[in-house]
Amino acid sequence: MIRFVLNVLWLVFGGGIVLALGYGVAALICFALVVTIPFGVASLRLASYSLWPFGRTLVPRRGAGMPSGIANVLWLLLAGWWLALSHLLAGLALCVTILGIPFGVANLKLVPAALWPLGQEVVETP
Fold this sequence. Notes:
The protein is built from 5 helices and 2 strands. By secondary structure, the protein is mainly alpha-helical. Helix 2 runs antiparallel to helix 3 (about 35-50). The longest helix is centred in the middle third of the chain and has 29 residues, at about 65-95. Pfam families: YccF (PF03733). Keywords: Membrane, Transmembrane, Transmembrane helix.
């Protein structure tokens, strides 16, 4: 129940809707460019994860091999570093207040996902 409440508060006050919309628009752009469809899929994964982060985590996907690693390097160079930096700065800013700490932690949880999204999958935490 507490995860549900935190996720609803995240949507309203933590910026979850804005993050999901941003990642969704990026996914649409990647899908339109055809060659970048794997990046669009990763962006949609980030959109769903940033929409509802409490009670979920990223784990390495079995069978994701070298192509996913190479694509992650491209992602890191082109988009990942500034996405991770924005999540890091937002997370630190939110951790300044006591009420913002859970939202700051959720943003900090998105940093590795923004850096290295391919070859990962979002799963429910027990």
